[in-house]
C-alpha cells in the first residue's frame, strides 16, 4: 500500500498503524529525505518493511512514477491513503488567487493524481481501497479556512463520485473528515486558540493521530468490505 504525506505527525502514525497490520508500505514524501528515512527505520525496527517514494505529485507524471516504483518493489497494491495536503489559513477577504490555487492543488489535485495512478492496477486485480484524508472544514466550514474548506469539500465530492464509478470493480473509496489533531502545529497555538478548538468538540479535546490512523486502517481492510462512498467524521463531535 501507499501513504502520501507520510512524514508528518498523522502520516507517521498511519505508517506505523498499517505496518503493524502487515502491509508493505510505500512511504510517500516530498523534499524531506531525513524524515522519511526515519519513518522507514521506525517500522523496520518493528519488524515491518517498506520503500521510500519521493516525488512531486503535482508534476506531470509524478504520481505515475511513484506508483511504478512501488510496483517494482511489491507485486500487490491493495490500498492507497491520500494524506498529502496543506493549508494557508486566513480570512477570505484577505486571501488571494495563489492561496486558492495552492489549497486546491495540495489537497485535491494530489489525491486525484494518485488515485488515477493506482486505479489501473486495482482494476486489473478487481480489488482495492482508497482512503482520502479530508477535514471537518470541508463538511461544516470554519472561519479563516475558505480555501482549505473548499478544497476538502471538493475532495469529499470526488470521494463519493469515484466510489460510484469503481464500485462494480470491487474498489472502495472513502474519506475521513478529521477534526483538530495533535501535532507540532497545534502544540504551537496560543492558549486561547487551543481552548477554542477543545471547546467546539463534544469530547472537549483534540484528537490523537492514532485515532485517525485506526479508522484509515479499518476502511482499507476487509472488515470494511461493504463501506464505500462515505465521509467518516473523526472530529470529537464537531460536525
Describe the structure.
The chain has helices spanning 9-20, 33-45, 62-73, 97-125, 146-166, 184-187, 191-200, 209-220, and strands spanning 2-3, 25-29, 50-54, 79-82, 128-135, 171-178, 231-234. By secondary structure, the chain is α/β, with parallel strands linked by helices. The protein has a single domain (2-234), classed as NAD(P)-binding Rossmann-like Domain (Rossmann fold). A 7-stranded parallel β-sheet has the order 3-2-1-4-5-6-7, with helices on both faces. Helix 1 (9-20) packs across helix 8, helix 3 runs parallel beside helix 4 (97-125) and helix 4 (97-125) packs parallel to helix 5.
Fold topology:
Blueprint: E1 2-3, H1 9-20, E2 25-29, H2 33-45, E3 50-54, H3 62-73, E4 79-82, H4 97-125, E5 128-135, H5 146-166, E6 171-178, H6 184-187, H7 191-200, H8 209-220, E7 231-234
Parallel strand pairs: 1-2, 1-4, 2-3, 4-5, 5-6, 6-7
Amino acid at each position: 500500500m501507499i501513504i502520501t504525506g507520510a512524514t508528518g505527525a498523522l502520516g507517521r502514525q498511519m505508517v506505523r498503524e498499517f505496518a503493524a497490520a502487515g502491509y508493505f508500505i510505500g512511504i510517500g514524501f516530498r523534499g524531506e529525505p531525513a524524515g522519511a528515512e526515519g519513518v522507514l527505520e521506525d517500522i523496520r525496527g518493528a519488524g515491518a518493511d517498506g520503500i521510500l517514494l519521493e516525488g512531486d505529485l503535482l508534476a506531470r507524471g509524478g504520481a505515475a512514477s511513484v506508483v511504478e516504483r512501488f510496483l517494482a518493489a511489491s507485486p500487490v497494491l491493495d490500498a492507497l491513503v491520500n494524506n498529502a495536503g496543506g493549508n494557508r489559513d486566513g480570512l477570505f477577504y484577505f486571501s488571494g488567487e495563489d492561496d486558492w490555487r495552492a489549497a486546491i492543488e495540495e489537497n485535491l489535485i494530489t489525491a486525484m493524481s494518485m488515485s488515477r495512478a493506482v486505479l489501473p492496477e486495482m482494476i486489473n486485480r478487481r480489488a482495492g481501497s482508497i482512503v482520502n484524508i479530508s477535514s471537518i472544514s470541508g463538511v461544516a466550514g470554519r472561519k479563516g479556512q475558505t480555501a482549505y474548506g473548499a478544497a476538502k469539500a471538493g475532495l469529499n465530492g470526488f470521494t463519493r463520485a469515484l466510489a460510484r464509478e469503481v464500485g462494480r470493480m470491487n474498489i472502495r473509496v472513502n474519506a475521513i473528515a478529521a477534526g483538530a489533531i495533535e501535532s507540532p502545529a497545534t502544540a504551537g497555538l496560543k492558549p486561547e486558540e487551543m481552548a477554542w478548538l477543545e471547546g467546539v468538540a463534544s469530547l472537549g479535546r483534540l484528537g490523537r493521530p492514532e485515532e485517525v490512523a485506526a479508522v484509515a486502517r479499518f476502511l482499507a481492510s476487509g472488515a470494511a468490505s461493504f463501506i464505500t462512498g462515505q465521509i467518516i467524521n473523526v472530529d470529537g463531535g464537531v460536525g
